[in-house]
Each structure stands twice: as C-alpha cells, then as structure tokens.
Amino acid sequence: xxxxxxxxxxxxxxxxxxxxxxxxxxxxxxxxxxxxxxxxxxxxxxxxxxxxxxxxxxxxxxxxxxxxxxxxxxxxxxxxxxxxxxxxxxxxxxxxxxxxxxxxxxxxxxxxxxxxxxxxxxxxxxxxxxxxxxxxxxxxxxxxxxxxxxxxxxxxxxxxxxxxxxxxxxxxxxxxxxxxxxxxxxxxxxxxxxxxxxxxxxxxxxxxxxxxxxxxxxxxxxxxxxxxxxxxxxxxxxxxxxxxxxxxxxxxxxxxxxxxxxxxxxxxxxxxxxxxxxxxxxxxxxxxxxxxxxxxxxxxxxxxxxxxxxxxxxxxxxxxxxxxxxxxxxxxxxxxxxxxxxxxxxxxxxxxxxxxxxxxxxxxxxxxxxxxxxxxxxxxxxxxxxxxxxxxxxxxxxxxxxxxxxxxxxxxxxxxxxxxxxxxxxxxxxxxxxxxxxxxxxxxxxxxxxxxxxxxxxxxxxxxxxxxxxxxxxxxxxxxxxxxxxxxxxxxxxxxxxxxxxxxxxxxxxxxxxxxxxxxxxxxxxxxxxxxxxxxxxxxxxxxxxxxxxxxxxxxxxxxxxxxxxxxxxxxxxxxxxxxxxxxxxxxxxxxxxxxxxxxxxxxxxxxxxxxxxxxxxxxxxxxxxxxxxxxxxxxxxxxxxxxxxxxxxxxxxxxxxxxxxxxxxxxxxxxxxxxxxxxxxxxxxxxxxxxxxxxxxxxxxxxxxxxxxxxxxxxxxxxxxxxxxxxxxxxxxxxxxx
Length: 739
Fold this sequence. Notes:
Blueprint: E1 2-7, H1 10-19, E2 24-26, E3 29-31, E4 35-39, E5 45-47, E6 74-76, H2 81-91, E7 96-102, H3 107-120, E8 126-128, H4 136-144, E9 147-148, H5 153-181, H6 191-207, E10 212-219, E11 224-228, H7 239-249, E12 253-266, H8 274-285, H9 289-301, H10 324-330, H11 337-344, H12 380-397, E13 401-412, E14 415-426, H13 430-438, E15 472-474, E16 477-484, H14 493-501, H15 512-520, H16 530-539, E17 543-546, E18 549-552, H17 554-562, H18 571-584, H19 590-610, E19 620-624, E20 631-637, E21 640-645, E22 653-663, E23 670-674, E24 681-683, E25 689-691, H20 692-702, H21 708-723, H22 729-734
Helix pairs in contact: 3-5, 5-18, 5-19, 6-17, 8-9, 8-14, 9-12, 15-18
C-alpha cells in the first residue's frame, strides 16, 4: 500500500516528491514506489456562499438578515475544482492506505487539508508532517518522525471556529451595512479596529498643540557642556528658568563633581518574526507588508533559502543549534561572507537570548536554511529580504558590542552640566551595521513613534578630554537652544503593523485582564493576515497613501461611524483569540464559542437596522458610468487614482493614473502614468512631464532603468486590474473574505 501526501502548494509538493523519490508524473501529482504526492493550490474548499443555502439569501435584503444557517456548509472553490477532483480521486484509490497531511504547519494549514478530506468524505488513517522549512534535510527528518493526525484535531477545530465566526459576523455586518446605505461598506473584527487605530492617530495629530522647549549649551576651552534640570532633563518648557541659568553661569567657574566611566554592552536585536521583518523592510526599503510576504514566500518555496515565513516567534528551539554551522556555510556570500567565515571558526552555542523552546509555538523565528543560493538569481526585492534575514541571523551569533562610556558632571552656581562620551572597544554585532552602511542601507534602529511630549536634549558622543574630580572649568560663553514638540507622525505600514501587533494602548477598555490577553494573543490579526488586511483597506478605498504615510479616506471615517461599536475595538479580537487558543488546547468547546458568536451576530444586525445614521458619497464626479449611467466616484487607490461606479451592483471602474517605479530625471521621485492610448504620459509632483513613447526611447538609449518589456508587462497588469470589479458587493464581500 502507498501513502498519499497532500502538500499546500505545487512547489512544496514537488520538493517533497523529489526527496521521497516520486519521479513519475501524473495528473496533478507525482508518484513513486511508496508515496504519491499531490497538492492543493492554497484552499481548494471554503465555506459556502450564503446563496447556496436557498433563495432567501440570493438577493441582499435587510429583512432576510441575520443569516444563521443551522450548520455552515463547505464548498469546492470553482476556480480550482479540477485540482480538488484530482486529490479526491487519489484519496479513493484502492492502493492508498493512508493520508499524510503535509500542508503548512499551523492553524490555517490544518484547515486547508482537513476541509479537502472532509468534503471528499474519505475515511482512511491520517498522519501529520510538521516541519518549519522545506529543505531536503527538513523533509527527510519530518518524514522520519510523522505525527498522528489526531494530535492536531483541536487545532483544526479552532481553525473551523475562526472561519465560521468571521463568516457569521463579517458577512452579516457587511451585508447589513451595504443594504442599509446602498454602498459597498465592509467591516470585520480586524479591519474595522485597524481603521479605528488610524483614526485615533489622526485625531491625536489634529488635536496636538506644539510647545516650545529650551536648553542651554555652555562652552569651555575643553568642550561644550549641556545643562541639566533638577529632574535630570536636558530641556525645560520654562524659558525663564533657562534664561536665569544662563545669567548665573556665563563667564563663571564650574567645578567637576563627578567623573563616571562604565563598561557598557549593547546586544543584538532579536531574530525576525514576520511582522518585525515587514516593519524593517518597509522602513529600510519602502516595501509594503504584502510585498515583503510575497518575497518571503518566493524565498521559502522557490529557492528554499529561508525557513517558514508566517511565524510569530523570535526564538529558535534547541535542536536547531546543531544546524547553525551548515546554515552559515549556506549563506556565505554577498556582503556578509567575511562574518560567516569568522563565525565558522568559532564554537557556536545557543543562549537564552535567541534559543528558548518555551517561546516557540508552531514555528521558530525566520532564519536561513542549509541551502545556498546564487544572489544573482534573486530579483532586487528577494535579495534585499534574504540579506535582511541573514544579517539578523548573524547578529545574534556575534558577541555584544562593547564600549566605554564616560559621563562628566560639573556644577556652577547651583546649576548642573554634563558631558558624555563613548569609545567603541569591540564592535561585536555592530559589525553588521557597518557593512550595511557601506552598502548604502539605512540602518536606523527604530520604527517606533517617539512620545511627542518628551523633551530630548543633545547627547555628545565620541572621545572627550580627561577630567578629574575637583577640576575647575571656566564657562566662556553660553547659548540658549529652542525647539518645539512635534505631533506623532501618521502611520506608515511599518508603524501600523507594530500597532496591530500591540494595540493595547488604542483600547478604550481599562480591563487589565483583557489588555493582557490582547498582548499575549498577538494583537489584531495574525502574522499571516496583517498584510492582507492592510491591502484590503487600500482596495476598498478606506485608506490611502500620501508619500509613505497612511491616511483615512472619507469612506473609512464613515464606516467607523456606521459600524457597530463592538466591531471598532480590538477587544473583540482579544476575546476571540483567547477562546480560539483555548479550543486548540482543549480548554473550551467549539460549540460554546459558536453559540456566543451567533448571539453576537444577531445583536450587530439589530444595531445596524436600528441606526439613524446615513452614508454619503463626497467624492462624486460629473462623469457618468458607461454601463449604468450613474455618476462615478473618484478614489485614491494605493498606487494611483481611478473612477468607480457608485452603484455597488454595477462594479465598473476605470484607472486614471498609476504610481510607477519609473523615477523622475529631475527630482528622482516616482512618477505617475496617466492618460490613455498614445496620450499616456508620465507626470511628477515637481512638474516634470514626459510622454510614454519618449520615456521608452530615452530609457532604451540610456540602456538602464525600466525596459520596454517591463513597461509592457506593467501596462498589461493595469489592463487586467481594470477588468476586475472592486465595487461588486458579491465579489468583494464574499470571495475569500478576510476580516
């Protein structure tokens, strides 16, 4: 008898087949002596559309809500029905004795395989392959220690509970809002609180009142000194205080009261999980969260040079430590080759800073695999992301950065002044940063927002003169410095990801237990879904991008006003994720969670039905839809502008402009491509204009930049996007709804 292996994607299936010696090609499978390997194409089965339950839900009407089928059914996805039939036929083959689930190791991967098996109705023994990377070595090790599928039954139940809850709440709320206001308005437990977070930041910016703050620099022949207040701050909001201090100490003698020298260490940041990688990629290279995930998927599936990307852990398990030398040899190319060589000459040991089995759930942190790659084979984005993963992996293996910090304190007329200096003694992991700077990569540490009310003074670094306690210093001149507090910045994708991961400070509730739960359960969404949530908000025109910053549109603000209050807060996700986690651990029963969700669904539909609030289109144009004749809306898409029919059932749209990767020859910013046919032209915010034909000719003559093939491919993509309805209620609200 043979075993049937079900992978999640064809690329992974082919890798498994090669390792298992399955060389005989078949219809959607590869076969060998002991195994038959087949694959899904992501999900092949999904929750059934409301229309499939009967005539009552085929037309969107308020009186048919809420939709609460007694049992939620599953259906085969039409686009990939051929592959489902292939897998089903293989499962029923008489020579197949058992099924091995080899989909991605996680809640969603479990759902992919189990729904296929459930829909087919097959009853055969099942095993589970649970691996974090798809290298040959990992596959061989995984098959040598297959798990019993029943060990993951509760994880599957949690996955089903999550999917069904999102169907019930998301589709009912979306349909109720859409019908009530005759506009495509969607909401859900993750996307709507994300909008609320953005709204809260915009409100903070609008309400912000700048304050002036003051500091004092005094000069002596030896150095410049910084004034410190009695609260040990280098600035004050009191101009009078700083003026008095200046009068007291100018042309006066200060006495050195303390000289402190300390050996300090700074440690490498933690290994990457997906969210922290997306944050750095956005900050350093401008990649969107979705782009970073796509690059990672390619590196994981196609090149097999990184481990499983959709992880929320930043630690490794102890069994990985022995594989580190092999991984170092695999990534011994590019700008970090010298560091890899240096580390291979040392004795590599794991420590608690990056190795902790208790802090790894489904998958460990993202690190390079044991498989090498020719960096020239990677496209620009793939290479950048791969090198980020490698750099962080090397950083935790290098020793800490060591430096000597000197702080000198002097007192004059009761006023305190300080002077700080730092001397690098051993760069340690900072050697990575040095190499990145040489390569022209932005190495700023933080993507976090600073507290706008915090006053920060100057800190002097570098070598400073030697001072001794009791030494007298003459202040020859002084200068009052002035600055203004700044409002918090609007969100970028990096900072929004950070807020989604840790949304506690955006919660209205003061319930400490609930706030703790939200922190422990990973915030809004998961590492695997946050990029899709942000993309969905762009594509439904509820947010837009101005430069690198994210802003709410009028539609987004109105959705927050119209949506049930419970759906606008992160608290709902906190409760759900806690219960889903309990289901996966066997602490909570799935049926109890479902009963709670059904009751909540009834409540939110009632809230929407009873609401007296209205929705209005404030972006109407004078142009009529060529298909239905109604006036169209002008919307800002993530990558440009378009016209969209206001009628949700029409769905017509037309691209007006697209932001491209073509750079302006004058100011080097990205240009927009506007117009149609022979009138297509590039425009820039600086005023530069150039016809597409002239642009192509110039690029061809220069032999660089965007090729004609690239432009052609880009134009084809635009045409394809123009055909896809974005305002169609059924397509947008039902097809692969991610809330």
